[in-house]
Every structure is written in C-alpha cells, then in structure tokens.
Amino acid sequence: DAKTTQPPSMDCAEGRAANLPCNHSxxxxxxxxxxxxxIHSQGPQYIIHGLKNNETxxxxxxxxxxxxxxxxxxxxxxxxxxxxxxxxxxxLDSGGGADGLxxxxxxxLIIQP
Amino acid sequence: DTGVSQDPRHKITKRGQNVTFRCDPISEHNRLxxxxxxxxxxxEFLTYFQNEAxxxxxxxxxxxxxxxxxxxxxxxxxxxxxxxxxxxxxxxxSSLGASGLQQNEQFFGPGTRxxxx
Lengths: 113, 117
Description:
Chain A contains no helices and 9 strands. By secondary structure, chain A is an all-beta fold. The chains are: A mainly beta, B mainly beta.
C-alpha cells in the first residue's frame, strides 16, 4: 500500500503557482520523498526528490516540513502542459530487492486557461 | 532518441493466447523494472532486474507472468494464457542505480497497452 496521502484532484490557473500537498506521516528517517508525474497516455516522469532539505530544480521545488511528515511540490508558473497526475512516493533504495516504486492514486492537477 | 523504448505499443489478443513484450532500457542503466497500470490506478510494481539478475519477482501477479533479461540488456515480459483481467498498460523503467547511492531516478518507457478480448 502507498505510504502517502494526496488529494485526488486540484485545479490551478495558468501562470499561477501550483502547490501540491502530500502527507507521509509514517516516513522513516532514511526514506526519501520522490515526485513523479504522468501526462495522459505517457509513462511517468521523474520531477524531483529530497530527504530533509528543500530542493529546487528546473521543473519544480520541493518543500519538506521539519518533521518530514508532509511535503509540498511547487510548480512556480503552471502551464497547460503541466496538466497531469502527480504522484508523491516515499522510497528507500536498499541496494537490492524490492526496489520498485509504490505509487498511490496521485493528484490529478488540471491547469485552467 | 536514447530513452526507454517498448514494443509493441499496443497489443490486442484473444483470451488464452500468450503475449510477449519487449523493453529496451537506456544503454548504461543496469536496473530494469516492470510495472502494470490499470485504469484510474497508479503503476503497480511487478519485478526488477539488476543487470541480468532478477532480484525481485514475488510481486509478479501469477505464475502466468515471467520476465527475462538475458545479457543484462533488453528485457521481455511474457504472459501465458492471457485473461481479460490482464488488460492493462505494461510499463518498463530503467535506472542507473548503484548500491548506497540515491540515484534511483527511474526513466519510464511509453508502455505497451494490452487488450485481452
């Protein structure tokens, strides 16, 4: 079972920041938070990941609370092409065995023109 | 294009037939994963290879499912005696992954959509 909780859907106006929340209250100390997204009819695409500190890359920013029980993915200037299902995943790379990602149902983000 | 490729993109078969899908990972990636995705759900992990070794196969849905990765390059996923419940998108992913390094960004292929009639 997924170890994360996300709202099933969200709307955001084009050009505004999209803030996608994720709860992972049972995360353990060495587990990372990963975000992927899946545009309709495509395979999932990696966005960003983090452990404790906030992270930023060319796609998004990841804000992780100090207690690590929740995080927020921020798309700073959403475009119509950002419409997708966004998955928050808690993951530990053990170096061998059972290293598949556990996806939940994600958040369907719809960018409105 | 040097991404993950999958073949075929679509497969329609009759119940009881065997089907085989192929995945070609990114060339320098030593890890390869198979997932299944049904409508409205997130991808479900099936199995995983590190080079040619299949390190996890307990998640395969039944003994009708098998996967191989000869020579640690491309991989095949076979479903024997297909059932209507096998209809889904089958996704392959690869990653560079090395023990102790958090480099498990998985690159996904476009998937093979299977329809069992």
